[in-house]
Amino acid sequence: MTASTPHLSSQFDTATIMGGLYGDGFIVCKGALERTWVQRLREDLAVLFDEARKQPGGALERGPNRYYVEIHPERLRGFAELLAHPWIVAVCSAVLGPDYKVVEAGFDVPGPGAMLQPWHRDFPAPPETLIGRRLNSLAFNITTVDVTEAMGPLEIAPGTQWDALSDGDPMFPDRSLYPRYQARCQRKLAQVGDISARSALTIHRGTANVSDQSRPVFVLGVDAPDGRNAERHDLQLTRGYYDALAPELRRHLACRVVDTLTPVVQAHTIEGLRMGAAP
Fold first, then answer.
1. How many domains are there within the chain?
2. Could you report the per-residue pLDDT of 134-165, keeping only the tens digit for each?
3. Residues of the domain holding 35
4. Assign residue 96 a region: left if phi > 0, alpha if psi is -120 to 50, beta otherwise?
């Protein structure tokens, strides 16, 4: 994990990146991170999860025993290294352009007993995608455990980031469309060290966690200049931390620079996930 340079990020093929995200809507870089780095991430997330559950509204329910927590990035060891990771830089630059902005840092925790989610996307598709046929946001995921079939892995329906869902809920497809998603379904068994990138518009769902282990996964949300997902989040950095970052990293952050960090008032609730999938 070292600072990225144009040389390092250019080792990744733009056509391959764009083909994956405009095609399936999901790509992965296997073994992108050292396992020791991910172990530190898991330790940090455990501390933040414990704090969030003690704070009113700190951990949002995304279904039974399934939570989302938005965090202050500087509470993570190695956050600056992550921003500079050559693959993340290459993917953001290829799909979102050179002026991309990081707008979200958080994590999901599907614990033991988490139920099957309904098929969904994370927010309504914007006109830039539905009409302009252009992706203007991405979500990067980093698993902190080796995912097994029993741990409730993510399932995606490739290519569905372009689905309009114009006749009903813009985030939750009608059940009549489920056979389409089931026919396309891919289950993702992420391993420690992997980084994945996806369009959050690609129809997906978390599956039931029937194991005795939680499956924490870090989330980094990134927008193109015309993306509006910063409105759903509250990225904060203290002045000292912000000023210590390299200028090339600072310019890619859509954040508030503050004297003192304040609890995140989480705006990105997804009520349709709270009860799990209908039988």
1. 1
2. 999 999 999 999 999 999 999 999 999 999 99
3. 23-258
4. alpha
